[in-house]
Amino acid sequence: MSLSERIAALEEEVRNAAARTADEVERFRVAMLGRNGAVTALFDDFKQVAAEEKRALGQRLNQLKQSAQARWEELKQASETGAGGAVQEGDPTRPAAIDAAGSLHPITLVRQRIVDTFARIGFTVSQGPEVEDDHHNFSALNFPPDHPARDMQDTFFVEGAGQYALRTHTSSVQVRVMEGSKPPIRTISPGRVYRNEAISARAHCMFHQVEGLYVDKGVSFAELKGTLDHFVKSMFGPDVRIRMRPSYFPFTEPSAEVDMSCTICGGPGCTVCKHSGWVEIMGCGMVDPAVLANCGIDPEVYSGYAFGMGVERIAQLTYRVPDLRLYWENDVRFLEQFRADAFRS
Ligand code: PHE
Fold this sequence. Notes:
The chain is α+β, with helices and mostly antiparallel strands. It contains 13 helices and 9 strands.
């Protein structure tokens, strides 16, 4: 091996040297820099080097000696501070770096709060498939075959799968619950739903719903109203009021839209409530007797109410987010703003 190669080999050895105990550190010093050490030996051999090589090799040799000394100091310090011979990088006394922790998405937060509110008054939580058949999404819910909601405009059909579609509401889950259990039934169905809508600040082709169902003997519209009033006050505070407007759904009779007093402006009118002081938050009604019968529940014995709301709308009223699309972009600057809330709930 030429002197140059031996220098390179020792440079490598110095770089990789490890020593845990004071003894090992001393052994490193002796092996490299001691009177019979490897580096010292190279200095002896250097005397035989041809004059024209002396300058370049001499420099490298001096560097090697310096780095062996520096490495020895390092190892010595590390063994004294108990760092196990590992190389300390950077300043070990600086404050610890905080990892950026993620947090729950605002839609998740609001969904959880809605679910908790109903769970506290005795509702169970039920879930079902997002790819749904015609029976659960439409037929059992009393949609006539030519109802416009079945139209390609609103529904994403699964290509080549005949009667299957992405569910357009979580009422499909309630059909499954009614088919599979006996009253009393008190359940809510949170989940993602899909509609073929153009994406804008106010609409998206997928969104989240929480739908509720209560079936028992003698369930009344008054109970529905009382429950929804309780829900809205739990979510938004005791001063918020609701009002109901007659409406139509194939699966409820009578049906209503529920408005709540606008939390953004508190009454006088703003862009969110379109200057009316009221915001529509859900649909509801008494379960149509035909739907109960379709699901194997005797409508002569039982009655029920149902309601359904969009989580994004409730989130908009909670957080005043002006544009729905922000929920889907996953821009951390947006998501970060809900961190404090995530830890509160
Ligand atoms: N399923 C309806 C929708 O998707 C909401 C609703 C549920 C209305 C229950 C009335 C009763 O819009």
